[in-house]
């Protein structure tokens, strides 16, 4: 597998509980390098645009309100097979189903407040990175 980049969000439930460092440590232990990072607070319009793929889902309103409730940390992670590796380190969407040692098993509060987001495929990773970062901000 080649070196890939993926997009990650440390979500409001985690930034609020001061878990940013603990979550980044999990990425680094898994061999993922942080090549871009910033702490921001989304507007409602930005959250709705980012999660547009889920617009028809029953949890869309709740998800967008949650994502703007506190600052988030958006990052680009780089490494061997980074997209799949990041999702492995994150664990299942619902922390009750997440494997031991994963971020969501250790830190997530619920299926909604689940501490992290990670891109699910190369095309979405590229779109999500471009949504938040300019080329100048990516330092490999
Ligand atoms: P993500 O996109 O955040 O990395 O998570 P994912 O792929 O594991 O989950 P996805 O199906 O894409 O859902 C996006 C986010 O929506 C919230 N969600 N809430 N209340 C619910 O039933 C529910 N289901 C999903 C979660 O915050 C999930 O990460
Ligand atoms: Mg997803």
Automatic annotation (TrEMBL):
Task: Name its co-factor(s).
Answer: Mg(2+)
Q: What is this protein called?
A: Nucleoside diphosphate kinase
Residues of the active site: 117 (pros-phosphohistidine intermediate)
The keyword Transmembrane is annotated on this UniProt entry: no
Q: Where does ATP bind?
A: 11, 59, 87, 93, 104, 114
Q: Which GO terms describe its molecular function?
A: ATP binding; metal ion binding; nucleoside diphosphate kinase activity
| InterPro entries according to UniProt | NDK-like_dom, NDK-like_dom_sf, Nucleoside_diP_kinase, Nucleoside_diP_kinase_AS
Write down a Pfam family by its short name: NDK
Quote the cellular component terms of the Gene Ontology held in the record: cytoplasm
**E.C. number(s) listed in UniProt:** 2.7.4.6
Q: Which NCBIfam families match?
A: PRK00668.1
Q: Enumerate the UniProt keywords alphabetically.
A: ATP-binding, Cytoplasm, Kinase, Magnesium, Metal-binding, Nucleotide metabolism, Nucleotide-binding, Phosphoprotein, Transferase
Give the source species: Yoonia sediminilitoris
Q: How does it assemble?
A: Homotetramer.
Q: Where is the Nucleoside diphosphate kinase-like domain?
A: 3-140
Into which family does the record put it?
Belongs to the NDK family.
């Amino acid at each position: 597998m080649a070196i890939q980049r993926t997009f990650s969000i440390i979500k409001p439930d985690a930034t609020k509980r001061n878990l940013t460092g603990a979550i980044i440590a999990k990425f680094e232990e898994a061999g993922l390098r942080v090549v871009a990072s910033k702490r921001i607070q989304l507007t409602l319009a930005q959250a709705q645009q980012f999660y547009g793929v889920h617009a028809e889902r029953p949890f869309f309103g709740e998800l967008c309100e949650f994502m703007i409730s506190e600052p988030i940390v958006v990052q680009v992670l780089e490494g061997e097979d980074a997209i799949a590796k990041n999702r492995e380190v994150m664990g299942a969407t619902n922390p009750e189903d997440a494997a031991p040692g994963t971020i969501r098993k250790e830190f997530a509060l619920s299926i909604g407040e689940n501490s992290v987001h990670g891109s699910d495929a190369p095309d979405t990773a590229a779109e999500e990175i471009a949504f938040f970062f300019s080329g100048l901000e990516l330092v490999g």
